Amino acid sequence: MMTYHEPNTERGNIKNRGGFVSNMSGDVPRVNRQLAVSRAFDDKSLKSHLQLDPDIQWTNIDNNKNILILVSDGLWKVKHFTLMSPY
């Protein structure tokens, strides 16, 4: 149930809104050389270039699922999501 919302994956939407995605050597892609995520609720300086709607996914949870992992956008930059597979 993961969806990555990174500047590279939403480059077209950012460009259509008047922004750009920078790819500086040794750094992660950033919106207008600033923000490393492509969705944000209250970033006033980049608000016009970003998607403001949250990504909502629904799934049925049954007795076979015993854990739910909620993380912020930065965790997967330093840890690979497969580390959570034992859970």
From TrEMBL:
State one molecular function term (GO). protein serine/threonine phosphatase activity
Pfam families noted in UniProt: PP2C
Provide the residue span(s) of the region labelled Disordered: 1-21
Where would I find the PPM-type phosphatase domain in this sequence? 6-78
Q: InterPro entries attached here?
A: PP2C, PPM-type-like_dom_sf, PPM-type_phosphatase-like_dom
Gene3D superfamilies (alphabetical): PPM-type phosphatase domain (3.60.40.10)
Which protein are we looking at? PPM-type phosphatase domain-containing protein
What species is given as this protein's source?
A: Gossypium harknessii
Print the organism lineage.
Eukaryota, Viridiplantae, Streptophyta, Embryophyta, Tracheophyta
